[in-house]
Structures are given as C-alpha cells and as structure tokens.
Design goal:
single chain, mainly alpha, two-stranded antiparallel ribbon, 2 strands, elongated
Length: 130
C-alpha cells in the first residue's frame, strides 16, 4: 500500500491481479462446472459456457497489462469500462424474463455485479498509483 497525504491507497497492479484472479476462477467455474451451475442457478448452460469462454481471453489481457511496468491510461479506462459493462450485463441477466434465474442465480449475478463494480471503483481510485 502507498501512503499519500495520510491516506492509504492500493497500487493499481495489485487490484488488477485480484481482478484477473477472480475472473480466472469464475471463468473456469463456468467452463468446468457449467452443467451443475446451470442446474443450481437456472441460467442456461450455454450462457454460462459462453461467459466462461469470454473470461479466458479477458484474463490474458489483464495479465498482459499487469506485466507492464506502467499500465497505459487508455487500458485502465478500458478495463474500468468493461467491468461496468459486465455489471450491466449481469443486471440484465438476473432481471430479464428470458433467463429467469432462481434465487441462487440472482445471488450468483449479484456477487459478480458487486465484485466488478468494486474493482472498477478501486481501479479508478488507484489509476495514478503505479
């Protein structure tokens, strides 16, 4: 952590590492356990697999950014934007009548919404802390 003017801030790279690790876990979960997860949440199995596949290249992109000594500001704002878009997509998935998830599905979606919005806020707050 970096102390600036009496405030403690997290460095951007640490937040990106946590984001990448979380995305990797969720992506692998949705790929490896799509069928039981679909039964538990009532989300379509193909939706879970698709989102799992989408997360894998996203993790690769995050790792590429993490390995840079300085993450370009455009990449940081892109990451923040994708996190917000993911939260919006999850909101649609848990509220749209097409998917109709059960209580576990809503909780699964809310966990992702809260997580990615927290990452977006932390990434924005630490965008200059590299």
């Amino acid at each position: 952590m970096i102390s600036t003017s009496g405030r403690t801030r997290l460095p951007l790279h640490g937040i990106l590492i946590a984001d990448a690790m979380t995305c990797a876990v969720f992506g692998l979960l949705m790929l490896v356990a799509a069928n039981p997860l679909a039964e538990l949440t009532q989300f379509p199995v193909n939706l879970l697999r698709l989102t799992g596949w989408v997360l894998i290249p996203w993790v690769v992109f995050l790792v590429i950014q993490i390995r840079r000594p300085l993450v370009p500001s455009g990449a940081v704002f892109g990451i923040i934007t994708v996190n917000i878009a993911w939260a919006l997509g999850c909101m649609v998935a848990i509220t749209a009548p097409y998917f109709a998830p059960n209580t576990y599905g809503v909780i699964f979606g809310l966990i992702q919404i809260i997580g990615v919005l927290a990452f977006a806020i932390l990434q924005y707050a630490s965008r200059n802390e590299q």
